[in-house]
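dumping this here so i dont lose it
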């Protein structure tokens, strides 16, 4: 249910910290990748070793003891969700004021992922206007607050301020992580340049690094899709993505056809148009002089998908162009009978192959056309998926 979702579990200093242990276990059992982050005072209530043993990664406690020089930004950027349970009045106050006085509050300020705050404190503190105002500020910024319950508090007192039960927090997290606009959708993405063998050691290839395809797979996963990434490159796939490694255009074709009933297929791969007609079984020796390479056409996977498109299915192609971007891309869209073409001018600076950024024009079959200026490949991925989500909703 939460397979591969990256969750940061922030634990601050309160008697209820023991309940975070149960929450950690539930999240890990549901397939989430849990990174616990404890404040100094949290460690007075529960030992680090407990979380070390239960979570997916060792506990993090400080910005400065980490191998990563910027753990707060790295953790904040890669998280799908940050939950703080229990959250003390101090941690809530720091977060609401943007004060990053420890690793956890620094992550909270650095992240763009959804945040769930589960306050736990004595009734007098819970009812204090400062705490209530801070929570209101956080709610107005989109933070989810799981209200505490009434019951026994530390020292035997009774009242409101008791941390919500782990089952309740788990339910809120699941709801937040599974209500993406691609929830329940099967998405297939291809990535990288295909390699067409000349002999066992040589191939005909291209400059594609697969980064844009990987970014689309990651974005689709974050938006709730079940994602298969068919890739020719040796990059680690995002956790939770089903990775299928292929090399040639024909292997990619076969892998795509096996999954051709997906809701969405995004052909981000740079598939070779031609391959050597004869592949030598043994290494071609240079004594024989340079061999003549005779090429033959490969199957156009995208055209194949376009000609057998299922009702309601959305097929997306890419178009790498160096001139007359829109004219060539819209001709491709029509010729290959696809729903969307993402066109990029690969001759422009910082655009396309191997770059971290991209700039594209997104063309739809109904003639709609949208230019997306230079930005990270992950942001481009979300723009492409926004278009796909609109088509799926029609
Ligand atoms: N594509 C494909 N199978 C091929 C070649 C390309 O599925 N054998 C897909 C690519 O994955 C991409 C789209 O077709 O989504 C367009 O690729 P591109 O190389 O820009 O266009 P081509 O069709 O190869 O046309 P041209 O080389 O003439 O620009």
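and the seq i came up w/
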């Amino acid at each position: 249910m939460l397979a591969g979702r990256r969750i940061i579990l922030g634990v601050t200093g309160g008697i209820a910290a023991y309940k975070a242990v149960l929450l950690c276990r539930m999240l890990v059992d549901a397939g989430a990748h849990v990174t616990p982050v404890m404040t100094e005072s949290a460690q007075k209530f529960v030992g680090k070793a407990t979380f070390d043993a239960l979570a997916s990664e060792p506990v993090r406690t400080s910005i400065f003891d980490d191998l990563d020089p910027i753990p707060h930004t790295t953790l904040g950027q890669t998280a799908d969700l940050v939950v703080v349970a229990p959250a003390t009045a101090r941690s809530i106050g720091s977060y609401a004021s943007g004060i990053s006085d420890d690793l956890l509050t620094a992550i909270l300020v650095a992240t763009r992922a959804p945040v769930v705050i589960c306050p736990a404190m004595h009734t007098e503190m819970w009812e204090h206007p400062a705490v209530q105002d801070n929570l209101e500020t956080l709610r107005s910024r989109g933070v989810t607050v799981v209200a505490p319950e009434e019951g026994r508090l530390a020292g035997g007192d009774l009242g409101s301020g008791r941390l919500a039960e782990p089952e309740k927090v788990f339910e809120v997290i699941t709801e937040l992580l599974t209500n993406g606009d691609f929830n329940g959708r099967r998405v297939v993405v291809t990535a990288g340049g295909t390699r067409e063998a000349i002999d066992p050691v040589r191939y005909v290839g291209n400059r594609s690094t697969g980064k844009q395809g990987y970014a689309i797979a990651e974005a689709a996963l974050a938006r709730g899709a079940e994602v298969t990434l068919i890739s020719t490159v040796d990059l680690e796939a995002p956790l939770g993505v089903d990775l299928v490694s292929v090399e040639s255009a024909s292997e990619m074709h076969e892998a795509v056809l096996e999954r051709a009933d997906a809701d969405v297929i995004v052909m981000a791969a740079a598939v070779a148009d031609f391959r050597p007609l004869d592949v030598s079984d043994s290494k071609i020796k240079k004594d024989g002089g340079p061999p003549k390479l005779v090429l033959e056409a490969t199957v156009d996977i995208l055209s194949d998908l376009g000609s057998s498109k299922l009702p309601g299915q959305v097929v997306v192609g890419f178009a790498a162009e160096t001139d007359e971007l829109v004219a060539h891309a819209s001709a491709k869209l029509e010729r290959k009978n696809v729903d969307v073409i993402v066109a990029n001018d690969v001759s422009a600076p910082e655009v396309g192959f191997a770059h971290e950024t991209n700039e594209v024009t997104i063309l739809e079959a109904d003639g709609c056309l949208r230019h997306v200026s230079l930005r990270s490949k992950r942001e481009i991925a979300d723009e492409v998926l926004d278009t796909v989500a609109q088509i799926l909703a029609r």
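Residues 260 and 305 are 7 Å apart (CA to CA).
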